[in-house]
Amino acid sequence: MRKAYLLLLFVMAAFVSCKNGANTQIAADTGYIDGHPAWIMQGNIYEVNIRQYTPEGTFAAFAKHLDRLQKMGVQTLWFMPINPISKTDRKGTLGSYYAVSDYTAVNPEYGTMEDWKTLVKQAHEKGFKVMMDWVPNHTGADHYWLQKHPDFYVKDSKGQPVSQFDWTDTRKLNFANAELRDSMIQQMKYWITETGIDGFRCDYAVGPSRDFWTSCVRDLKAAKKEFFMLAEADSAWLHEVGFDATYSWPEFNMMKLIAAGKRNASAMDSVINKSDTTLAKNAIRLYFTSNHDENSWNKADFETMPGLSHAPFAVLTQTLKRSVPLIYSGQEEPVLRAISFFEKDTMHFEKLQRAGLYQKLLNLRKQNPALSAHASFARLTTGMEDKIYAYAREAGTHKVVVLLNFTNTAQDFSVKDGLLTGEATEIFSGKKEKMEPGKPFSLPAWGYQVYSY
Q1: Which of 13, 138, 242, 411 could be stapled to 170 by a disulfide with Cβ–Cβ 3.0 to 4.6 Å?
Q2: What number is the average pLDDT over the span 295-309?
C-alpha cells in the first residue's frame, strides 16, 4: 500500500512539473514533446557534404571527424544525398547530388552500402542521430523508372518526361500515380529498416502532393519510433501532414537584409510574428546562416553575413523560439568560399576559428531546457529596438537571456524588464552577474551576450 501511495505521489509531482513548464526530462522519457521526437527539441543539425568534406570524399574518411564534431557539440548529422548520380544530362564532371539514379543504392564515389552502415553504426555509438537527404520531387535523367515505369513521370504534350525549372539533369515525378506514391514510400522505408537512420530531410518538399506526404509521414513514423521529418520549404501545410520542422526562409532572408544594413533589428519581429500566425502552434523551424544551396549559389555566410556580423546571427539561430539550428559543413573553420556543386572542391579543417563559438552555443542548448524549441519566448525592452535585439527564453526555473547588437557600431543600453532578476552566467566570458531591471549593458559592433540561469 505504501509503495502504491509513493508511486501516486511521484506521478502527481511529475504532472505538476509538466504543468509548470519544467517538463523536458519527464517528457523526454515518453519519447515525444509537443508531438515531436524528444531528442530534437534541444538538439541541433550539422549538414555533411561528403563529396567535399575530405580529399577522399568517402564515408570512411568522414568518420575520422566524428570525435571532433562530437566535442563541438553536434547532435544530428544530416548527410546530403548519398545515392548514385545520373549520367544523362549531368551537370559538370560529377553531377548534382539531387539527380538520383537509384533510390536504394549508394554513390560509389562515397563507398559501399556496408561502408554507409558502418558509418551509421559508428555515429550511433557516439550518440549522434543520423538523417538522410531525400529527393522525392524528381529523379535523375537516367533513373531506371524512366524505362520500367514511364507512367511515374510528368509528360509534356509530346509524351516526353519534363524537367522542372532549370533542373535539366532531372525528370519530374507524377504524384497523381498511386503506384509511384507507394513505391516512393517503400524505398524511403528501406533506409530505416536496413540502415537504421533517424530522419529525413526532404528536398523541395512542396513538389509532391499533400496526400502523398500524409501517407508517407504516417508510414515512416510507424516504421521507427521517434523518427524526425524535416521539409525544405516553409509552407504551413507541411506541418499539417506531419512534418516536424520546416525551413525558416523568411527569417533567413531578413537576417541578410539586417546584416547588409537595409533593415533594422526590429524587422526580425515582423517575419517571426507572421510565422507565429500562419504555422501550427507546435511547428519547429530550422534556423541557419548558411546551407549547401546558400553557400554555393549565394556565397553564404561569408558574403551575406561578412566578418563580425556572422556571430550575432549564429547566436540568434541557436537561441530563437521554435528553433532547431543548422550548421553547414565548413562553417566552423570557416571556409570562406562558395563550395563547388558539380566538381570536386575539398574543404580543409585546420584553424577551426568558429568551433569555440559553436561549442558554447550547442552545449548551452543541450544543457538548458529554456532553449528547447517549445520553451517560452519574450522580447525585452531596451528603448533601442531598432539596434538591439533582446529576448528571454524560459522553461520552468530555467532561463536564458540573449542580447544582440545588429549594427556595425558599439551600443550602450539598459534592459528594463522584470525578467532580469537573480544571478546569471554569461556563457562566453564565464562571468557571473547580478541581473535586475534597468541593468546597463554595452555591446561592441555586432556584439552579443548570452546569460544562462
Answers
A1: 138
A2: 98
C-alpha cell at 284: 519547429
Distance of alpha carbon 21 from alpha carbon 33, whole angstroms: 12
DSSP state of 371: G
Q: What pLDDT, in 10s, does the model give residues 34-83? A: 999 999 999 999 999 999 999 999 999 999 999 999 999 999 999 999 99
The span from the CA of 306 to the CA of 336, in Å, is 10
Q: Which of 394, 254, 381, 247 is nearest to 319 (CA)?
A: 394
Strands 284-287 and 323-328: parallel
pLDDT in tens, 216-251: 999 999 999 999 999 999 999 999 999 999 999 999
Give the β-pairing of 398-405 and 448-452: antiparallel
Q: Which of 396, 379, 391 is nearest to 451 (CA)?
A: 391
- Distance between CA atoms of residues 364 and 358, nearest Å: 10
Q: Are 76 and 130 in contact (CB under 8 A)?
A: yes
89-129: per-residue pLDDT in tens?
A: 999 999 999 999 999 999 999 999 999 999 999 999 999 99
Integer-rounded Cα radius of gyration of the chain: 23
CB neighbours of 76 closer than 8 A, spacing ≥ 6? 40, 43, 44, 45, 46, 128, 129, 130, 131, 198, 199, 228
| Number of residues assigned to the chain | 453
- Alpha-carbon distance 453 to 435, whole Å? 10
Contact 320, 377 (CB under 8 A): yes
- Compute the Cα dihedral for 202, 206, 208, 209 and give only its sign: positive
Cα distances from 347 to residues 216, 287, 307, 384, in angstroms, run 35, 23, 19, 40
Q: How confident is the model at residue 23 (pLDDT cuts 50, 70, 90)?
A: very low
| Residue 404 near residue 419, CB atoms below 8 Å | no
Contact indicator for 229, 132 with CB cutoff of 8 Å = no
